[in-house]
Amino acid sequence: MATRLLAAATAALFLSACGGGDAPPDQAGSQPDARASVPAGPGFTDPRGEIFVVKGCPQCHSISALGVKSPAEVGPDLTLAYEDVQTRFNMELDDFLENPTGTMAVVLSAQIQLSPAERDSIHDILEDIHHEAVGDHDNDDD
Ligand code: HEC
Q: Which parts of 19-49 fold into alpha helices (H)?
């Protein structure tokens, strides 16, 4: 417990020290220019984490494979979401991002807007890190 609090505090310090990536919930979807103000590496250790930070996903999701740490962890770690969505929601990840159910239906209509290109990027990254996490390197964009 202490470790987890410390980790959250460290993440919060890191985010505020770098001055980016911690947009409040009601602004996450309405600031398309946020990307420009994000310096290299706030809140993620893998460059593929940037889009998630820019879009505000770490308000609720850690993505451990990308070094993204959510202080709140309201939703599941997205490292295995590519497969998890198929098991839990019985749909492919790209369908889920386009027509989500449950909490994400609310998030992606009221709070965060994803363009088709952003959905694609998020899908491809989550597919890649899933393959990396399960040790399956058969996908050909390595
Ligand atoms: C306000 C909190 C919140 C934000 C912000 C948020 N999510 Fe979620 N998300 C959730 C919750 C809670 C769940 C679990 C939903 C459920 O079980 O019905 C979830 C589930 C998911 C899932 C399914 C995961 C799985 O393993 O089944 C994906 C994929 C996902 N979110 C992607 C995203 C992405 C991408 C973003 C940023 C664009 C994002 N979420 C932002 C709360 C959030």
A: none
Protein residues whose CB sits closer than 6 Å to any atom of ligand 1: 52, 55-57, 59-61, 74-76, 78, 81, 84-85, 88, 96, 102-104, 107, 112, 114, 122
The maximal CA–CA distance of the chain, rounded, in angstroms, is 41
The model carries a pTM of: 0.75
Task: Tell me the one-letter amino acid at 66.
Answer: L
d(CA 13, CA 22): 11
By the 8 A CB rule, do 60 and 85 touch? no
Q: pLDDT tens-digit profile of 5-31? A: 445 444 444 444 444 444 444 544 444
Q: Which long-range contacts (CB under 8 A, 24 or more apart) does 54-60 make?
A: 54/21, 55/28, 55/112, 55/114, 55/118, 55/122, 56/23, 56/25, 56/28, 56/29, 56/111, 56/112, 57/112, 58/21, 59/25, 59/28, 60/107
Distance in angstroms (rounded) separating the CA atoms of residues 20 and 28: 12
Q: How many CB atoms lie within 10 A of CB 8?
A: 15
